[in-house]
Specification:
This protein is mostly beta strands and 110 residues long. The protein has a single domain, classed as Rieske [2Fe-2S] iron-sulphur domain (Rieske Iron-sulfur Protein, 3-layer Sandwich), CATH 2.102.10.10. The protein is 0% helix and 40% strand. The strands form 3 sheets. Strands 2-3-4-8 form a 4-stranded antiparallel sheet, with no helix packed on it. A hairpin with a 2-residue loop joins strand 5 and strand 6. It is globular and about 40 Å long. The relative contact order is 0.24. The protein binds FE2/S2 (inorganic) cluster. The site of FE2/S2 (inorganic) cluster has 9 residues, from loops.
Length: 110
Protein backbone atom coordinates (compact mmCIF):
# COMPACT_ATOMS: atom_id res chain seq x y z
CA UNK A 1 0.00 0.00 0.00
CA UNK A 2 1.24 3.48 -0.87
CA UNK A 3 0.01 6.82 0.41
CA UNK A 4 1.41 9.36 -2.08
CA UNK A 5 0.86 12.78 -0.56
CA UNK A 6 1.71 16.05 -2.32
CA UNK A 7 4.10 17.97 -0.05
CA UNK A 8 5.60 20.99 -1.78
CA UNK A 9 6.86 22.36 -5.07
CA UNK A 10 10.20 20.83 -6.01
CA UNK A 11 11.69 24.31 -6.48
CA UNK A 12 11.20 24.94 -2.75
CA UNK A 13 14.03 22.51 -1.96
CA UNK A 14 17.34 23.83 -3.32
CA UNK A 15 19.89 21.41 -4.74
CA UNK A 16 22.04 19.71 -2.04
CA UNK A 17 19.84 21.04 0.76
CA UNK A 18 17.08 19.68 2.96
CA UNK A 19 13.80 21.13 4.13
CA UNK A 20 11.60 20.08 7.03
CA UNK A 21 7.88 19.68 6.58
CA UNK A 22 5.31 18.87 9.23
CA UNK A 23 2.65 16.62 7.74
CA UNK A 24 0.41 13.84 8.98
CA UNK A 25 1.45 14.26 12.61
CA UNK A 26 5.18 13.89 11.91
CA UNK A 27 8.08 16.02 10.77
CA UNK A 28 9.96 14.80 7.75
CA UNK A 29 13.08 16.10 6.03
CA UNK A 30 13.17 16.10 2.22
CA UNK A 31 16.60 16.32 0.59
CA UNK A 32 17.34 17.35 -2.97
CA UNK A 33 20.22 15.29 -4.35
CA UNK A 34 21.70 15.65 -7.82
CA UNK A 35 19.32 13.21 -9.45
CA UNK A 36 16.48 12.66 -6.99
CA UNK A 37 14.79 13.56 -3.74
CA UNK A 38 15.06 11.46 -0.58
CA UNK A 39 13.00 11.75 2.59
CA UNK A 40 13.63 10.66 6.19
CA UNK A 41 12.37 11.57 9.65
CA UNK A 42 13.66 15.02 10.51
CA UNK A 43 14.49 14.29 14.13
CA UNK A 44 17.83 12.66 14.84
CA UNK A 45 17.31 9.61 17.11
CA UNK A 46 20.33 10.61 19.23
CA UNK A 47 19.09 13.87 20.78
CA UNK A 48 16.60 15.26 18.32
CA UNK A 49 18.86 17.28 16.05
CA UNK A 50 17.14 18.77 12.97
CA UNK A 51 18.52 16.63 10.17
CA UNK A 52 17.12 18.99 7.52
CA UNK A 53 19.90 21.39 8.58
CA UNK A 54 22.63 18.77 8.24
CA UNK A 55 25.32 18.75 5.59
CA UNK A 56 24.78 16.37 2.69
CA UNK A 57 27.64 14.11 1.68
CA UNK A 58 26.69 11.84 -1.18
CA UNK A 59 23.65 9.93 0.05
CA UNK A 60 24.34 10.62 3.71
CA UNK A 61 23.41 13.51 5.96
CA UNK A 62 25.49 14.65 8.91
CA UNK A 63 23.47 15.64 11.97
CA UNK A 64 24.18 19.30 12.80
CA UNK A 65 24.30 18.69 16.56
CA UNK A 66 26.82 15.89 17.13
CA UNK A 67 27.86 14.69 13.70
CA UNK A 68 26.12 11.32 13.47
CA UNK A 69 25.81 10.30 9.81
CA UNK A 70 22.71 8.68 8.39
CA UNK A 71 22.19 6.97 5.06
CA UNK A 72 19.28 8.74 3.37
CA UNK A 73 18.37 5.66 1.34
CA UNK A 74 18.08 3.25 4.26
CA UNK A 75 17.74 5.49 7.32
CA UNK A 76 20.57 3.54 8.94
CA UNK A 77 23.33 5.24 10.94
CA UNK A 78 26.63 4.97 9.09
CA UNK A 79 28.36 3.63 12.21
CA UNK A 80 26.00 0.79 13.06
CA UNK A 81 26.91 0.69 16.74
CA UNK A 82 25.41 4.14 17.24
CA UNK A 83 21.87 5.53 17.20
CA UNK A 84 18.69 3.89 16.05
CA UNK A 85 17.70 4.01 12.41
CA UNK A 86 15.29 6.48 10.87
CA UNK A 87 12.11 5.92 8.92
CA UNK A 88 12.57 6.57 5.20
CA UNK A 89 9.79 7.66 2.87
CA UNK A 90 9.55 6.88 -0.84
CA UNK A 91 9.66 10.16 -2.74
CA UNK A 92 8.92 11.14 -6.32
CA UNK A 93 8.41 14.33 -8.30
CA UNK A 94 5.57 14.71 -10.74
CA UNK A 95 4.82 17.90 -12.64
CA UNK A 96 7.06 19.87 -10.32
CA UNK A 97 5.43 18.62 -7.11
CA UNK A 98 7.21 16.47 -4.53
CA UNK A 99 5.10 13.50 -3.44
CA UNK A 100 6.01 11.43 -0.37
CA UNK A 101 4.63 8.06 0.69
CA UNK A 102 3.81 8.89 4.29
CA UNK A 103 3.50 5.23 5.27
CA UNK A 104 7.30 5.08 5.21
CA UNK A 105 9.49 2.12 6.04
CA UNK A 106 12.03 1.39 8.71
CA UNK A 107 14.87 -1.09 8.60
CA UNK A 108 15.78 -3.10 11.62
CA UNK A 109 19.27 -2.63 12.94
CA UNK A 110 21.31 -5.82 12.65
S1 LIG B 1 21.35 14.91 17.98
FE1 LIG B 1 22.06 14.06 16.12
S2 LIG B 1 23.97 13.24 16.59
FE2 LIG B 1 23.25 14.04 18.45
Amino acid sequence: MIDWTPITKAVNIPLREGRAVRVGGREIAIFHLEDRYLTIDNQCPHKGGPLCDGILSGTTVICPLHGQRFNLETGMPVMASQAACLTTYATRVEQGIVFVDLLGSKQEAA
